[in-house]
Design goal:
369 residues, Neuraminidase, 5-stranded antiparallel beta sheet
């Protein structure tokens, strides 16, 4: 379901978009692209506070099609019907059970509960379908996951860690089962700690994750290859989904300049908070190519959607269940201008949001035509 495609601190610099779509590269053959169109819009600039967002960090669909929107600016989750009617809210700022310090991700679980990850408190807060506090899940080896998605009888997530004595930074994909109160680690990648590595990690978009009844899908941002890792929950052999003959696409000069501006803005923010001193002296070189993938998700037909990172107008490759290559393409209606939106694709609905827009935060409910 998930991804946090861009750091919301940097979004204000990326409005110019990509100079022109790449028509001749990386196309799925023998298909006619279907189109995502607008069904409803949630959000106001001024007025009823239930519809005024601070910073939309993430969202998910409940099993009955309602939309749970994580507003990190106000440390609450607001729940709306698919038509956009406000139904209630949960959470709040604080350290008490059911409150958040810096929430980063949300997942609507198979048992109807809503899970919200709060990495810096080291906890995942759980709420009933009636928006009442249920319990706090903790016990992570370091911080709680930044990215989570409903999976199996609980949730999956990307977990970071660090062995300071060895100078090693780890990134792992794991599943937490709420029924058995157990966890399963599917992968772990080690990198040597250095200021240069940490700077690149800070500036890179977060990974994208989703799951169906059998697999966890994980796409970490990469520029040189198009790949989605598939981890079967029965612990059979993992495998990769790819785009045949993928060719990296170079960024425009405007987008490279936007990356530099985003870096400068991020460093200014960290300096103001008294952090990032070791990073300020490092020369930042943004990736010369676009990231190959963005948001991913599973629709009601079991198709895996993978967003193309190089397209200016949001475009998705659809992998049918069991397929290792895409079979068709979906694009967003270009008149909606969704270039900087994050997409959430689930069996219960499709939506998009923009964390730091030029006007005001809003959620767009979409349908496939």
């Amino acid at each position: 379901m998930k991804t946090a495609v861009t750091l919301f601190f940097t979004m204000m610099f990326l409005a110019c978009g990509k100079e022109a779509p790449i028509e001749a590269q990386n196309e799925v053959e023998n298909h006619t692209a279907r189109v995502l169109e607008l069904e409803a819009e949630i959000g106001l600039e001024l007025g009823d506070s239930n519809y005024v967002f601070g910073v939309i960090q993430d969202l998910d669909f409940t099993s009955d099609g309602n939309i749970a929107v994580l507003d990190a600016g106000k440390n609450v989750v607001k729940v709306f019907s698919s038509q956009g009617d406000f139904m209630g809210k949960l959470g709040g700022e604080g350290e008490a059970p059911g409150e958040f310090l810096n929430p980063r991700g949300i997942a609507c679980l198979s048992d109807g509960r809503i899970a919200v990850t709060d990495p810096f408190s080291g906890e995942v807060e759980l709420f009933t379908c009636n928006m009442q506090y249920s319990e706090t899940f903790s016990g992570f080896t370091s911080r709680a996951p930044f990215v989570i998605t409903a999976a199996g009888n609980g949730f999956a997530g990307e977990l970071g860690g660090m062995n300071r004595d060895a100078g090693i930074v780890t990134t792992s994909v794991a599943l937490w089962d709420m029924e058995s109160d157990s966890s399963t680690k599917f992968s772990e990648i080690e990198n040597t700690f250095s200021p240069e590595f940490m700077l690149q990690r800070i500036m890179k978009p977060e990974a994208a994750m989703c799951a169906d009844e059998e697999n966890i899908y994980y796409a970490t941002p990469a520029t040189e290859h198009y790949s989605v890792s598939v981890y079967p929950m029965d612990l059979s052999t993992p495998y990769e989904l790819s785009f045949p003959g993928y060719t990296p696409v170079e960024k425009t000069a405007e987008d490279l300049e936007a990356d530099i501006q985003a870096y400068e803005y991020r460093m200014q923010g960290m300096a103001a908070a008294g952090r990032g001193g070791r990073l300020a002296s490092i020369t930042y070189s943004p990736p010369e190519n676009y990231y190959a993938t963005g948001s991913i998700g599973i629709d009601s037909g079991g198709n895996l959607w993978v967003q193309r990172g190089w397209e200016s107008n949001p475009t998705f490759d659809l992998f049918p269940p069991g397929a290792t290559e895409p079979a068709e393409t979906v694009t967003a209606d270009p008149e909606l201008h969704l270039e900087d939106f994050t997409f959430v694709i689930t069996p219960n609905g499709i939506a998009a949001f923009e964390s730091n827009p030029e006007d005001f935060p809003r959620v767009l409910v979409l349908s496939l035509q």
